[in-house]
Amino acid sequence: MAGKRKENPVKEAVEKILKKNGHNYNDWKKEVINKRKLEVMSGEDKEWTESTVQEASFELIMEEINKEPRDNQESSFKGKFEKQN
Hints:
Radius of gyration: 24 Å
Distance between the termini: 66 Å
Number of helices: 4
Largest sheet: none
Strand content: under 5%
Number of strands: 0
Helix content: over 70%
Order of helices and strands: HHHH
Structural class: mainly alpha
Shape: elongated
């Protein structure tokens, strides 16, 4: 037995507001997404850019750590730590 799909109350409220003002939810949603994409691609969203680069940096570091044999990791970390101090 298939149940009724539960709607998102925020989406329902936005749909009502848009309809009241003569706008369509799907058109509005596309406009919001396209605007956000343009901001990201043009470099206007510095926070998103920084967090994305930071996330990719952590992934790269973890990949590199996982590539090294276990014995080399310990001596590699000790050497790096000792050089900084």
